[in-house]
Every structure is written in C-alpha cells, then in structure tokens.
Amino acid sequence: MFRLAFIAPMGFFLFSIGYLAFILSLDSTVMIGDTYGYDPGGAVVPASAAVLLGLAALWQLVTQHPVANEDRTKAPVGLLLSNIAISAVFIAVFRYAGFLLSTGIALHLLIQLNLWTENGRQDLKNGAAGLAITILYLTVMYAVLRGMIKMLFWLARNFDLPFFREPALQAGLGVLVLAGLIYIVGRLLARIYRTPGTVALIQTSVGTSLAIYVIFRLLFLVQLPAGLLAW
User: Fold this and answer.
1) CA-based radius of gyration for the chain
2) How far is CA 125 from CA 101, 121, 122, 129, 131, in A?
C-alpha cells in the first residue's frame, strides 16, 4: 500500500480535488469580454485540467497491479521523475515556443517515454525522427489553418459576407479541414512506418494539440502564445 505506484496517483488525486475546490471557490471571471457570447469563463481551463488529472489518477489507482519483480519496481520512479522534468520544461518554454509547438512536443515526448517504459526497449533514432515529423506536421497544419482563416476574413470583407467572421463558423470549418488532412497524413504515415504505434503517437500528439488550439483560439478567441509560429 505504500509503494510509489500507490502513493503518487493518490497524491495527484487528492491534489486534483483540492485544486478543483479552490477554482470553484473563486469569483467568476471572463476570458474574452464575451463579445460573441461564447465566453466559457476563466475557470474552465484549470477546472478541466483538475478533472482530467483526478480521473487519470483514479484510473491508475483502480487498475494498478502488484509488480512482478524488483526491476519493475524501479521503473515508476524514473518514469515519474522524467514526466515531471518534461512538464517543467514545457512550462518554461511555453511562451517562447508557442502553444502549438510546445504542446505537441510535450505530448509526443510524454507518450513516447511511457511507451518505452511499458515496452522495455528504446529506439532513439526512430524516436527523434518521429519528433521531427511531429514538429513539421504541426507547422504545416498551422500554416493551412492560418491561410483558411485569412481567406474567410477576405471573403467577408470583399463580398460583404459577415457570417464568415463568426468564430463558430471558422472553428467548424477548421475542424473539417484539419480532420480531413489528419486522415490523409495518417494514411501516408502508415506507409512510411510499419509500426502502428509510431503513427498513433504522431497523430495523437498533433491531433490533440490542434483540437485544443481550435477550441480555445478560434471558438473562444483566447490569445494563446504564438511563439515561433507567429506569422
């Protein structure tokens, strides 16, 4: 009962409950001035993070099994410290690298690290190549999304079509375009990589980052740091 595999998730679970209670006790604030009526409130991001953390910790508590040997007991310590280190670096470079790049890279590294620990083998060359593809993938998808948004504003301005400026429309079209491109790229990556896990890793990192970006940047108009992708 007092192994790190039990203490760590229990600590995260209790922390998430306390943090959620703290967030809900604060006064309600706005994020974007509610110009379009889509403002979810300033508590939505930290509250969502607290709920996800609590659910993940609870799931780990419920599904954990006794370790089989001494080597397995040492794995969670290094894994936990590595996850903390990646999260700390993510926080430090978030504003400079920008939301999309920092989030995509952090997700890729966290998932890759946990897969390596689970599988018991490391392929640094393949891992570096996958990370490079994730960075290029995110950059191209951002360029496509920015081009689409600029085109919608151009249509609204030159043809007197104000509904093209609506955040809900722009976010909806963005989701459709990005989903189609992600599907196409996924089929291409499946031909490059014979291991489905690598394709799933890249797709998950990019898809999750883009989904969060579209929701908060296009729909809720939250000013996420652009960083290196500032054009």
Assistant:
1) 20
2) 21, 12, 9, 6, 10
For 176, half-sphere exposure in the C-beta direction (CA atoms, 13 angstrom radius) is: 8
Q: How far apart are CA 119 and CA 128, in angstroms?
A: 17
Taking only the tens place, the pLDDT of each residue in 164-203 is: 999 889 999 999 999 999 999 999 999 988 778 889 999 9
User: Rounded to an integer, what distance in angstroms lies between the CA atom of residue 141 and that of residue 97?
Assistant: 16
- Which phi and psi (to 5°) does residue 135 adopt? -65, -45
Measured between alpha carbons, how far is residue 57 from residues 24, 44, 176 in Å? 20, 20, 33
Which residues, in sequence order, are CB contacts of 3 under 8 Å at separation 6+?
67, 73
168, 130, 170: which is closest to 150 by C-alpha?
170
Which pLDDT value is given to residue 38?
A: 63
User: Cα torsion for 100, 53, 9, 83, to the nearest 10°?
Assistant: 10
| Closest by CA position to 49, among listed 5, 103, 126, 118 | 103
| Structure tokens belonging to residue 133 | 């593809």
Concatenating the DSSP letter of every residue in 113-124 gives HHHHHHHT---H
